[in-house]
Design brief:
With about 120 residues, this protein is mainly beta. The chain has strands at about 5, 10-15, 20-25, 35-40, 45-50, 60, 70, 75-80, 90-100, 110-115, 115-120. Strands 2, 4, 5, 6, 9, 10 and 11 form a seven-stranded mixed sheet that branches. Strand 5 and strand 6 form a beta hairpin. It starts with a strand and ends with a strand. The relative contact order is 0.32.
Length: about 120
């Protein structure tokens, strides 16, 4: 089993930045595909960004491309650097892990999920 815990969320003004972290425990995630998703009130969970197990490939939703950067370290951590935040980025952000190397946008293909961290962007 893999446990994922997100941190780094908070309240920020439009145009500001936040860096989210996701710490994994239980097993090494070095061979797992990883991703960030988000869910705003009244909306479905949506893909934000994904990264391959090696870190060599990254994928982004069009809405965050050029503003957000996903990365991972050699340990058991995943990151999401969020710049130029806008009110529409307000959501609970979740990290997800796929033991089958998947790092795309389909949520059902991820095996483990964190509890989420709230990001609120004020206008």
């Amino acid at each position: 089993q893999v446990q994922l815990v997100e941190s780094g969320g908070g309240l920020v003004q439009a145009g500001g930045s936040l860096r989210l972290s996701c710490a994994a425990s239980g097993r090494t995630i070095s061979t797992y595909g990883m991703a960030w998703f988000r869910q705003a009130p009244g909306k479905e969970r949506e893909f934000v960004a994904g990264i391959s197990w090696s870190g060599g490939s990254t994928y982004y939703a069009d809405s965050v491309k050029g503003r957000f950067t996903i990365s991972r370290d050699d340990g058991n951590r995943l990151y999401l650097q969020m710049n130029s935040l806008q009110p529409e980025d307000t959501a609970v952000y979740f990290c997800a892990a796929s033991q089958n190397y998947y790092s795309g946008s389909e949520a059902w293909r991820y095996d483990y999920w964190g509890q989420g961290t709230q990001v609120t962007v004020s206008s």
